[in-house]
Amino acid sequence: MTTNNLTAPELRGAVWRKSSHSGGNEGQCVEVADLTAAPLTGQRGVRDSKNPEGPALLLPAAAFTAFMAGLKAGAFDI
Questions:
Q1: Distance (Å, rounded) from C-alpha 73 to C-alpha 62?
Q2: Is position 78 within any domain?
C-alpha cells in the first residue's frame, strides 16, 4: 500500500538526502529517503527540500526504481 501526503511528523527519523541532480541555488531541490520504520518499510519518500515540513510522496521501492530508470533513459524528457 502506498500512502501519500504524509508530513514531517509522520516521517520523523527518516534520513533525507538531496538528489545529486538538484540545482544548487536554483530552488529546484528534491530529497529522497529510504523508509525503514513500519508501516512504511521498503518505501521511498520524496519531498521538496525547500519545504521539509510539508508533504512527501511515498512510493514502493520497485516503483521508485522504475521511475529512476525511466528518468535516466530520457522517458520523461519534453
A1: 16
A2: no
